[in-house]
Amino acid sequence: MSRELVVALSGGIGGAKLALGLSRIVQPENLLVVANVGDDFEHLGLRISPDADTLMYTLAGLDNTKLGWGRRDETWSFMETLASIGGEDWFRLGDRDLAVHIERTRRLQGGETLSAIAADFCHRLGVGPRVLPATDDRLRTRLRTDEGWLDFQDYFVRLQCRPAVRELHFEGAETARPHPDLLAALRDERLRAVVICPSNPFISVEPILAVAGMRQALSACAAPVVAVSPIIGGRAVKGPTAKMMRELGMTPSAAAVAERYRDLIDGYVMDMEDAEEAARVRPKATLAQTLMTSLAEREELARVVLAAADAHAYTKGGRDIVA
Amino acid sequence: MSRELVVALSGGIGGAKLALGLSRIVQPENLLVVANVGDDFEHLGLRISPDADTLMYTLAGLDNTKLGWGRRDETWSFMETLASIGGEDWFRLGDRDLAVHIERTRRLQGGETLSAIAADFCHRLGVGPRVLPATDDRLRTRLRTDEGWLDFQDYFVRLQCRPAVRELHFEGAETARPHPDLLAALRDERLRAVVICPSNPFISVEPILAVAGMRQALSACAAPVVAVSPIIGGRAVKGPTAKMMRELGMTPSAAAVAERYRDLIDGYVMDMEDAEEAARVRPKATLAQTLMTSLAEREELARVVLAAADAHAYTKGGRDIVA
To answer: Which superfamily is assigned to B5-43+50-61+114-144+171-316 in CATH?
Structure first.
């Protein structure tokens, strides 16, 4: 029995880097990248799905490396004109990116599912691995802050993460169902590893885990679950992870993230810079270079993560593994 | 009593040229440009309003003079990307133009009227005269062709006017109501003239005339109604007017257009090139240069049209006119 299937749980930018690394060492048909949908929202009448799109653009080689988000070769005529006629311009939508939102919205209104549309877009853009929204049901991250309850994009983009976060709520999570193909993958005896990408635990990973039945499915899963720390030296590579940890009463550290995932994970990969912390991390941590500045580093981290999973396969499932 | 108000009934490109000419000799607050809405349609989930937008862009100096339609300084990233993900690309929407459609759709969904949104967009883009959709109600031009009944844009853009037209129908016209401000303008004792712009009679002017009550309001109107021929030397300056006339059993000529409008108009302006036909035109025609290639020619034709109206004011209303 060859165990070759890899499931990666991911948010946007940071997670997409590791997903790209994984896509270079795992056969496309064996990689399932599960996208957070808690960031999704309706804006200007359009359904925006930021994390799935970032994953799609990154895996298609169409990501905007200069901006760090959005699409390559982007133009901004739409946004400029929208501002000139009094439209809302706090959420920047490039002209190319917009095509994805308009076409997705049209197809959703025609009765297609978010996941089917994402699969078709990926296929058309030449993305090999499958990018699967965690659920086709409605799930929205909301945050209780010192300015009251906020919708995710109000907090994240409009207010640029300035309000202090006190509590998170994943609206719809109780009734949302994991995509059947995700549940099937977690039960698949060919599953080699579940990778929790170095994304923000609170707003990228936990909205996936919050989908009803997901934690149980992960606990029941025979393959090792390995998380990668989004924190290096007490700081987040990008985004508000460290700030949010402090606001939620945690010390921003790789160890604290491991603690947060403790009941789910079999392995943990953290940065060599945090070697001192490693002793107090459970499960036992693997040290690696987790900052992925080049494509080679993405691929290398992906190898380390799968090796860490393989090392735990005996203790978890006791079955043969693919080296 | 000064009669200074001018109402112009217009389709897109050709009509917009004369509207621009009028805007240079009539005070902005005294010019009401009534836009055909029979071309309006829903596409990609967006409400597109081609004639009102062409009028707005032209009056704002934002029209794309190279293409002959759409917006100046346009970019096409959206369309390119839409095609790459399998979206419908037969109706070309520029990135800047798209902002208008998205914002209009959003505001319509929020309960605003087409006319209020058009007024606000015009105001923001610095357009002085008012561009008023003929009706806020739903009205759609459909055409019976040798390929069956077609929606307007299917005929006009997708099939590039190739099917032969046998009959036109203005869906919704019976229940649509002219905008109250249009009815008020037609009753206004300050009204100097109603101008029927050199637009296609069948698909640009008659959808306006078809709105329930419009023909009666025009007949009851005290000011002269003057039409400008869209046909010069048996040919249309642009678009399918001549082809459509033949298909509908008419000889494409300035005289035939005058005949079509006969029960509505007090004056008719036709091209000097058609001088021979003038003798058989009723009402008596004014000869002028109607091809408007420069801004000066637009303004000059506007002067001729208003002078023709003024010449008929005595016979129609018997009141004093503004020279």
So the answer is: CofD-like domains (3.40.50.10680)
